[in-house]
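Retro notes
What went well: the complex prediction finally ran end to end.
Inputs used:
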Amino acid sequence: MTMIFGVPLAAFTGQLMLGLINGAFYALLSLGLAVIFGLLKIVNFAHGAMYMLGAFATLLGMQYLGINYWVSLILVPLVVGGFGMLIERFILRRISHLDHLYGLLLTFGLALIFEGTLVNFFGVSGLRYPTPELLQGGYNLGFMFLPIYRGWVLLAALVVCLGTWFIIERTRLGAYLRAGTENSALMQAFGVNVPLLITLTYGFGVALAAFAGVLAAPLYPVSPTMGSSLLIVVFAVVVIGGMGSILGSILTGLAMGLIEGLTKVYYPEAANTVIFLVMILVLMLRPAGLFGKEA
Amino acid sequence: MTLIKKALTTSIALATASAMAATAQANMSDNEVRIGYLADMSGTYRDLAGPGGLTAMEMAIEDFGGSVNDAPIVVFSADDRNSADVGANTVRGWVDQENVDMVGGLVASSVTIAVTKVIEESNGLALVSGSAASSITNEHCTPNHIHWVYDTYPLANGTAKAVVEQGGDTWFMLTADYAFGHALEGDVTKVVEENGGEIVGGVRHPFPTSDFSSYILQAQSSGAKIVGLANAGADTVNAITTASQFGVTQSGQQLAGLLIFLNDVHAMGLESTQNLLLTTGWYWDMDEQSREWAERYYERMERMPTMVQAGIYSSTMHYLKAVEEAGTDDPETVRAQMAEMPIEDFFARNGSIREDGRMIHDMYLAQVKTPEESTGEWDLYEILSTIPAEEAYRPLSESNCDLVQN
């Protein structure tokens, strides 16, 4: 049997595959954060809570309204995204002229409120969401048993990530967005409704988090605290990729998933810290992040 | 005028009342029995004790009549947020400023060890119901606390032994990388090896971990018959769910959960937990007495109680009986009185308190039902066998507790 540093090739490949799947999650979440930070300059600490709300909306939608997984996949990001727009319009906008720190504190407070409220109703043990019938079971790939659902998560997350990158970097709407954040006064002079653009962008970033929440619902227990545990890692990914860099956060998300996956094989005790080690290294060598523009 | 009148009537009323109760209350500090409830009310361990445990404690007080020998029972409660500092400071305040006579609940082992030190310094009394570490009545024993519901020793002894006897003789350990996980792993290794089994591999995962897929893959490629889960709460839930997604049981491996609570099984559902073996101190549906109490609890909480919540009722009730019997709330006297009385209620069978502070009682080996067997939302366990109190817990001859003379 071929061995790679004492691990059989088959097991090694399996671990890489899992790393990639986790990386896709990181990519999807850090992408939303990067979009919001890049265009609005808001450090959105409520992002984890939005991811959690996405998962809860999926679960409750099925329980009380009978909405199935596939409909949720479209509907939940729209609903939670709409909720995000209300938050931007009526709360965040009031402090948009203040220092970034205020936005950070405000969104952090909002996250605590959402989390606490749901803990009150649902506890912390987590609830189960069944895997949709079409995606149950798994394939034996020879080197590992791959549950179909995990394969689907990887595919769906990558498609959405690339779609987002395309919209922002390659379309006219994306160009407006980027221009609006560069010089909003000038854009308004050209007749573009910049405040509306900002609300939509925040809503879109939140919708991405909610989409990740829908994908996560059948995978992990749906619990009010599921977002906060993931958020810190995702922030580290954004910092490594370069705050606000779209492509950077996608690639870094995937890469960090892989690095974490390999750590779990060779030194599992460090699996939760390895991403932060990378972050420290990157901050020392390239303070603007791997894909960030030098400040 | 009215004020003076009011004060006057009050003092007359008080004087009469206290004269009447004087004999009975002579030995109750502050003429009240003050109980503190400390637990994780909002974090990982909320559902296994939390607000439900407080409800169980209040039920015990209500059933007792709300007062002991005419001294009213007053409850204080606080969230320790699983922090040893927060817990110890809260209890210090209760003991120093509020003259709290007994502290109950107590979940995370780290908090419990810190709190019992404070209680020992002030010569108070603590009844520990939620914690797992067997060291609480071993190297960390004090004359001022009693450990009520379960600990890691019977968990390993009950589950691991049964699994090896059923032919599960090769184990892969999935261990939470902190004191509790290491202790449990040590206990399990000892039991497995003593019974002729072998530990073929293991991985220590960070606490907490949300994604277990990598570790499950390693367990699969180890070829062990049994994957032992030396972790708790959300970690166990995540590990079991992931194992089910990766077809661990379908490929012939079996999971052994070493610390599983009713709320964990309820959260995961029977599809992914069916046939899991576990050791428990109590189960709501194990007999008529238990069901009767559990139904009353359910009416208030709309959830079935865990063994910890039932144990909080049982320990509070036993405490109040001892206070009544002893005629005082002096901790030392009450502690001695509690140890003198046998414990036989809906929760504990053949219960008694040892000199190291361990309350030993019958434990149960249970198996999680399959979805077909289950007849309702909370119909989750089948009790396979009873582990007699004497066999379940660490024998005093192996104790490192200073209170035990070996």
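What we learned: Chain B touches chain A through 37 residues (CB under 8 Å).
What to try next: split runs per interface for comparison.
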